[in-house]
Amino acid sequence: MVATRTALVTGASSGIGEAVARALVARGWKVYGTSRNPDAVARPIPGVEYLALDLTDDASIVACAKAAGDVDVLVNNAGESQSGPLEELPMDAIDRLFRTNVFGAVRLTQLLLPGMRARRYGRVVMIGSMLASFPLAHRSSYVAAKAAIRGFATAARREVSPFGIGVTTVEPGSIATGIGERRTHYLQDGSPYTADYNTMIEHLDANERGGITADTVAQTVLKAIDADKPKVLYAVGSNAPLVFALRRIAPRGLVEKIVSRKHGLS
Questions:
Q1: Cys-Cys link to 76, which of 34, 105, 214, 221 (CB 3.0-4.6 A)?
Q2: Rounded distance, CA 20 to CA 44, Å?
Q3: What sequence ranges are listed for the domain Ketoreductase (predicted)?
Q4: What is the pTM of this model?
Q5: Is 121 in the active site?
Q6: Which residues pair with 212 in a beta bridge?
Q7: Quick count: other Cβ atoms within 10 Å of Cβ 34?
């Protein structure tokens, strides 16, 4: 691999995206980071060129891809964290979540793949979540979106690998990025799910406060980028090696019960 590459990291204004962009700049790479409003980025990283991107707007996605030009590495990180009982999730909220977390990332990938294929090199990293592998009550829309993006990545791997392109998913567990403060909540007044929902959120927020850092996830992303043949999935945090081993050998019902109990649910 040559020393200098060009990367596009979506959602680079905070959290994992910011950590990945900073790590790539430290390597001397040309790095584009995206934000809905680049002028409002609170902690701009020296060496990162910020591009406007609204993943719910196709014209914005096309403009971003055009502005970035030839990109060697795409890290699809931007997204929304959403919670709520399935019965009470507004359809427009689910639609927005999938446009942001899935369809926008897929569209951006489609636009950048031809250049990667022509240059016979590329890396596409989808930032997923371990919740896609270990579903949690009251997070159905988020779980489904992360499972969908992993499905796109897993199925597309064989399509593009003959052209020197590696596609992979990084699934973090609990991360201490303050994402809980930005999570969207949907719970109706007087909801019969209130007690369980509040218990789950309390434990979820506590787990995240004690979770791994964004820099730790960024190092896993770099590992995926550097691999000659990236693995289909990289999991990091929340005792990933142990829990994935348990998932392979334990009955599904037992694993679901363990996940629930970790979040205060019976």
A1: 105
A2: 13
A3: 5-173
A4: 0.94
A5: no
A6: 175
A7: 27
Instruction: Read off the tokens for 158.
Output: 């064989």
| Active-site residue (options: 50, 142, 186, 197) | 142
Structure tokens at 120: 């016979």
Q: In a structure prediction context, what are the per-residue pLDDT tens digits for the chain, which is 266 residues long? A: 455 899 999 999 999 999 999 999 999 999 999 999 999 999 999 999 999 999 999 999 999 999 999 999 999 999 999 999 999 999 999 999 999 999 999 999 999 999 999 999 999 999 999 999 999 999 999 999 999 999 999 999 999 999 999 999 999 999 998 777 889 999 999 999 999 999 999 999 999 999 999 999 999 999 999 999 999 999 999 888 889 998 999 999 999 999 999 999 98
Interatomic CA distance for residues 186 and 83, integer angstroms:
6
The closest alpha carbon to 37, from 22, 20, 62, 54, belongs to 54
Which residue, among 263, 227, 19, 251, has the nearest Cα to 130 in the 3D structure?
263
3 state SS for the chain: CCCCCEEEECCCCCHHHHHHHHHHHHCCCEEEEEECCHHHCCCCCCCEEEEECCCCCHHHHHHHHHHHCCCCEEEECCCCCEECCHHHCCHHHHHHHHHHHHHHHHHHHHHHHHHHHHHCCEEEEEECCHHHCCCCCCCHHHHHHHHHHHHHHHHHHHHHHHHCEEEEEEEECCECCCHHHCCEECCCCCCCCHHHHHHHHHHHHHHHHCCECHHHHHHHHHHHHHCCCCCCEEEECCCHHHHHHHHHHCCHHHHHHHHHHHCCCC
